[in-house]
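Supplementary Methods, section 5.1.

A reviewer requested that the exact input to the structure prediction be made available. We therefore reproduce it here, unchanged from the version used in the analyses.
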Amino acid sequence: MDTSIREVTTQATLEEKKKLKKEFKLFDMIFITIAGIIGIDTLGAVSSNGAQALTWLIISAVTFLLPYGLITSELGSTFTQEGGVYEWVKLAFGRIPASLAAMLYWISNPLWVGGTLSVTAIAAIKVFWVQNGDYQFFGSQTGNALTEIVIALLFIWGVTWSAILSLRVGKWLSVFGSYAKFALFALFVVLAVAYFTGGRSTGAHIALNDIVPTGNLGFIFSAILPVLIFNWVGFELQNGAGEEMVNPQHDVPRALIRAGIVAVIAYAIPITVILFTLSKSDLSSASGFLNSFKIVASVLPTQLATILGWIVALAFIVALASSGGTWIIGADRTYAIASLDRTAPVLLGRFSGRYGTPIVVNAMSGITASVAMIAAVVINTYFSSGSIAGLFRLVLGFVISTTTISYLFIFPSYLALRIKYPNVHRPFVVPGGMVGAVIVTVLSFAYAAVASVFLLWPTDSAIASSGFDRTTYELANFIPLAVIVLLTAVFYIWGQAEKRNADIVIDYNLETQVESIGGE
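The structure derived from this sequence is encoded token-by-token as follows.
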């Protein structure tokens, strides 16, 4: 079996990789994957879709999460280069498709941090600190918008700073944030049981027969599956720091198995409790989990519930920050490696000699998140409903679409690399030979394709529930996508024009992660 592959890299890539530090162990990999997969900001969006959300959570866990986990276990333990996703697509299809995949994969994260994560952090403050999710700071549109922008900027740059710090320090946000999520889920379940058994839960509830799958494919494809897939993705995130891992061949599959099991349990329990404890009228979207928490906390004395709410809001914000920080850590490394490989200006790929992190891309993520957040707040305040739910809807669909489109490159690259490098030693192999490889690729790709198509061209009912007309909704998606493609092309031409960053042919040892120039 072959233990090395020959590929084209650049002088800048080799130089910057010298700054990497191997400090990424199994414990860290498990928690960074858990933090990346378990997103607390979209629990309300999932639950608001009713019992079918629970049905498709289970179905998608078996038919998407499992195949996706198998694919990533094989890719991540075999092709262990720094930059993960970019390297896989590059080896499979070349630099041009890899550059677009890396751009989509990267840019969705600052948009997410500046979008739904910031919005949900603002919602946490409003729901628990001022007891009103629709509260207007300073009693005016402008005062409220400015205050929301300040809160969001503090959140965004706190997340960005955690990514700028060395992986040895930054990874602890993933650990603490994961524990915060588990504590919030556990506390919620206890309060929900007390709320339900105390007879406080009134109104129409979801029944067991509501869980039976329906034939309303438009609703399933437009409203349920995209959010679920967005929740499930993140297995490959740790491979953004592939050459900072101590033992990727051994640790990647083990980390993914543990994180996957935890993720299924962590999503299934609170969603089940929300659906069966609260009445249908209580389910909402932007602050769904927050409002659910506030409702079940009513079993406590008022003063105790208020104090607990303050603590819950802080834990919630830490949990949100851990999700955003984890994705920024992985995705920024992916785009930094792509930049060094002449698909963007080499400056964007520079790593800090002190921290060993891609500090320029980190800063660019913070700036992008800030600009996206300010634009969303302004548009929502002066051209839309002005509510926190409206702001949430404005950004969620586009963030999910850019994410799922990037996986349309990632999943086929797995099958292509199986064919292109059949004799490479694979520490983990998807069962079933080529038949098994085709099955997991088709299943994963189909989910990503369906989610992408129905997010860009949603059904009429999905448009109606979004609060926007079809023209506005589609322009809000296609114009930014066109800008992203154009930016990718400009950056690629720019990177290719930097002649001082010359291409170099190397032999890369997949087991030792040692690169030798020209087969030396």
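DSSP finds 17 helices and three strands in the chain. These observations are discussed further in the main text.
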